[in-house]
Amino acid sequence: MRLDRRELAGAVADLGVLVPIAVALIVTNGLSPTAVLLPAGLLYVVAGLVYRLPIPVQPLKAFGAIAIAQGLGANEIAAGALLMGAIFVVLGGSRLLDLAARAFPRPVIRGVQLVVGLLFLKIAWGLVTDPPAAFADDALSANVAFGLAAVALVAALAFKRYSVSLVLVAIGVAVVVAKEGSGAELGPSALALPSFDVATFTTALTVLVLPQLPLSFANSCLATADAARSYFGERAARVTPSRLAASFGSADLLAGALGGMPVCHGAGGLTAHVAFGARTGAAPVAMGVTLLTLALGAGAGLAGLLAAFPLPILAALLAGAGVLHIGLLRDLEGVPSWALALVVGLVGFLVHLAVAVALGLVLWWGFRAARAIRTARTAYAR
Which of 6, 24, 85, 190 could form a disulfide with 253, with the two C-beta atoms 3.0–4.6 Å apart? Predict the structure, then answer.
């Protein structure tokens, strides 16, 4: 564990996912800003201390996108968080995910990571060409925003070893202070405990949880554990799919109880943290402490503060993480492995991740079964 300039630069590299979804849930869906950031901050601190690596914390992306698009209320979001938490705490505690991971070959996992990288690029594009409603009042024109994002992206990728992500975020914070700093309210925002009934849980299960489950299983658990091994080798021995499920599942139980934002881990976020300098658990601890400070010290005015953060900077960080995450495919060998990863990636991006993973597993194991049958027949014929 160490805390230096590079760790801090890596710590802030994943804000491109966190900030837009958090702002939209606060402004559009009426969630308490303190409740939104509190579970994320606590999980960041716990992840840094437990895993001792820059394990990321992100909002549930499919879950959040659907909740925002359909304007669901805090009760449905809280019910969904409780269901997600219960499911993954049970899966993590049973160690079933570690067993299931053995059935997933590397090309399929790399295909999942390709999906995540492409989704990051798609979200980054949307941030500058079609800004979320919560940012629209102060949005730049699409051409100007795209130009600024492109410059920031090139700088982030070309000079990442010089902690340029920290410089970009510092510029963003300066813009926030200039716009909103003088009028920001201090102290936590009010917490309103959610209320539940059967209809609330039914809506949460069918609309929010079921679409999110494949992504959380494949990306938050399997792909994150695989990416950690790729980056850190034996240092990542404790980063297993089951432990990841248990840690973010526990945070989601808290988010559900508070009426906050459900969270997860993510392979793309890990790439962002690592690519921009983070190497130890100090990065997530620093990020967690920052989020907790904001949640408790400035929660009352947090909606305006976060919405004032420049979108081109968020888009650049997100696009940079997407490009670098797609680079994980470089360790694949042979045309069949590359072909399978590309099929999984494109189907997952264009159709659905669950369909892509199922197709990838059928192709991989079907091919091996057919080859085994041919070998057995050949041996029998002799």
Answer: 85
The three-class DSSP label of residue 264 is strand
Would you list the domain boundaries of the chain?
5-332
Is residue 263 within a helix (H) or strand (E), and if so which, with residue range?
strand 263-264
The owner of tokens 């799919």 is 241
Instruction: For residue range 248-269, list pLDDT tens digits in order.
Output: 999 999 999 999 999 999 999 9
Q: Are the beta carbons of 115 and 345 closer than 8 angstroms?
A: yes
**Which residues lie across from 58 on neighbouring strands?**
264
Give the residue from 35, 62, 84 showing the smallest Cα distance to 247: 84
DSSP label at residue 141? P
Q: Which of 17-26, 169-178, 355-364 holds the top average pLDDT?
A: 355-364
Closest by CA position to 195, among listed 42, 341, 78, 316: 78
CA–CA dist 220, 17 (Å, integer): 14
- Model confidence, pTM: 0.88
**pLDDT tens across 72-90, in order?**
999 999 999 999 999 999 9
SS3 202: helix
